[in-house]
Write a structure and sequence with these properties.
With about 100 residues, the protein is α+β, with helices and mostly antiparallel strands. The protein has one domain: Alpha-Beta Plaits (2-Layer Sandwich), CATH 3.30.70. The chain has two helices and six strands. A four-stranded antiparallel beta sheet has the order 2-5-1-6, with helices on one face. The chain has a two-stranded antiparallel ribbon with strand order 3-4. A hairpin with a 5-residue loop joins strand 3 and strand 4. The longest helix has 12 residues. The N and C termini lie close together (about 5 Å). About 10% of the residues are buried.
Length: about 100
């Protein structure tokens, strides 16, 4: 069985402390199908300022990517709720398909 979903990716940083706020919304309130948070070792955004990790870093401001997916209508509603929380241009989405074994 195949189910059509919308996949959403949010780009932010550790310093903003938004990871917990996003997870609380996506897990506790919205109960989306799946969420993954990635902590990058380096990256840059619109400003061009490169953020990267060194062995000596004590205070980090590394890129964070938060991904989730769910049914199209639900994901679109969640995107509308997230838009005020996410910097313009830092959230992307695309259609995807979830594959289930036969009989599920």
């Amino acid at each position: 069985m195949i189910k059509d979903v919308l996949f959403v990716r949010i780009y932010t940083t550790e310093k903003k402390g938004e990871k917990e706020r996003f997870l609380k919304l996506l897990h506790d309130r919205e109960k989306v199908c799946g969420v993954t948070v990635y902590r990058a070792i380096s990256g840059f955004g619109r400003s061009g300022h490169v953020h990267h990790a060194d062995l000596l870093d004590l205070s980090l401001d590394l890129p964070i990517v938060i991904e989730f997916f769910d049914e199209l209508e639900k994901a679109e509603r969640i995107i509308a709720d997230l838009e005020p929380m996410v910097e313009p241009g830092h959230m992307v989405s695309w259609p995807a398909r979830v594959h289930f074994p036969p009989g599920d």
